[in-house]
């Protein structure tokens, strides 16, 4: 990474932050030739728990979106405002939450699969966005169809950028606050040690003690 924390060519990033870094090609070939393959159908217990966390999040995210659709129905042949709001808010929360998970909170295993992959993956909907657009086109509502296609995409990107910027700002503020506290504690410790060392030597004024 460069000084701004941006990824540059040559950086090796993990495919999934919840999984340990994979072996290098050399070590992978060596281990493959010396180790026996795992039994067919076997899966580590940790991955099963991650899948369970994703399923639990999805079981909550899907009904949440369905409930919002029932509570705020959209009239036929009009702009699907409910689906639009769901996708935009989901994009914002996903971006913000990822910054908190990766840069602010302590390392976790199940928070990202539960909230980001499971809940928000089921809460947001690409398929309904496309189905609504197709129905509007079939009904001859070209204006709402174009607005749904273009505005939803632009608003989703903007919401994602806003979530990332807000999360990174909060992370930077937390780092500055931590650095100032550490510097204050170090200065206080230095002042305390200086006073202790000074108190052991009697102070002389005008040749008198």
Automatic annotation (TrEMBL):
Bias-annotated ranges (Low complexity): 25-35
Positions of the UniProt region annotated as Disordered: 1-48, 183-209
Keyword Ion transport: yes
Main subcellular location: membrane
Residue spans crossing the bilayer: 50-72, 84-102, 114-131, 151-171
Binding positions for Na(+) per the UniProt entry: 121, 124
Catalytic reactions of this protein: fluoride(in) = fluoride(out)
Topological category with respect to the lipid bilayer: Multi-pass membrane protein
Activity regulation remarks: Na(+) is not transported, but it plays an essential structural role and its presence is essential for fluoride channel function.
Pfam families, per database record: CRCB
Keyword terms, alphabetized: Cell membrane, Ion channel, Ion transport, Membrane, Metal-binding, Sodium, Transmembrane, Transmembrane helix, Transport
InterPro entries attached to this UniProt entry: FluC (IPR003691)
Compartment annotation: Cell membrane
Function: Fluoride-specific ion channel. Important for reducing fluoride concentration in the cell, thus reducing its toxicity.
Protein family per UniProt: Belongs to the fluoride channel Fluc/FEX (TC 1.A.43) family.
Annotated protein name in UniProt: Fluoride-specific ion channel FluC
Organism: Catenulispora yoronensis
């Amino acid at each position: 990474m460069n000084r701004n924390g941006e990824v540059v060519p040559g950086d090796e990033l993990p495919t999934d932050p919840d999984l340990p870094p994979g072996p290098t090609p050399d070590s992978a070939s060596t281990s493959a030739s010396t180790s026996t393959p795992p039994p067919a159908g076997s899966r580590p217990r940790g991955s099963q728990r991650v899948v369970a966390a994703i399923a639990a999040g999805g079981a909550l995210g899907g009904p949440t979106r369905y409930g919002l659709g029932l509570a705020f129905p959209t009239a036929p042949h009009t702009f699907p405002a409910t689906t639009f709001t769901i996708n935009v808010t989901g994009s914002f929360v996903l971006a913000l939450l990822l910054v908190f998970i990766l840069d602010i909170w302590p390392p976790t295993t199940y928070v990202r699969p539960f909230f980001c992959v499971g809940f928000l993956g089921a809460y947001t909907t690409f398929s309904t966005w496309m189905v609504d657009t197709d129905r509007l086109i079939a009904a001859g509502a070209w204006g709402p169809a174009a607005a749904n296609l273009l505005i939803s995409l632009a608003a989703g990107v903007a919401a994602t950028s806003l979530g990332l910027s807000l999360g990174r700002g909060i992370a930077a503020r937390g780092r500055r606050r931590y650095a100032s506290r550490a510097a204050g504690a170090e200065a206080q410790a230095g002042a305390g040690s200086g006073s202790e060392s000074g108190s052991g030597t009697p102070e002389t004024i005008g040749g008198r003690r």
